[in-house]
Known about the structure:
Blueprint: H1 2-8, E1 14-16, E2 22-24, H2 35-54, H3 57-82, H4 89-113, H5 121-138
Antiparallel strand pairs: 1-2
Amino acid sequence: PLVLAMQRQISPDSYASVDGRRRELKVGASFVHSATTGTIQREARWTQYLKSFMQSYYLANAMAGIVLLDAFCTCADIDARAAGRTPSVVVKTITDVCLGVYTLEAVTQLCLFGRTILRDWMTVMDISIVGCGWAEAAI
């Protein structure tokens, strides 16, 4: 029957029976979808969400607060060392957490936006400062 339909060039939603009459064919099923297509779409949505978050004012304001906290802790660290005392464990922990946050931000930006992000001189300066922070932590 399907061969006859192809020979007579009947539309794909119908076919001819052996006796030549045209019968309608209805397809009413749930189609199988590729798992990779859904995964790719979810990853694309997730990437778009991360990109918009990385460029949001919320993150910029949060990072400004973290920078101020880090500057305060760095001043406390410098004052303690200048007085001949060891810096507080809390101050040292906060500065280390801030360095981790800066590193996470830099790595996320590089992963999301690629090398094109390095065209911005502020980003290059931020990455250099993070590198200096890790160099100081290694010493």
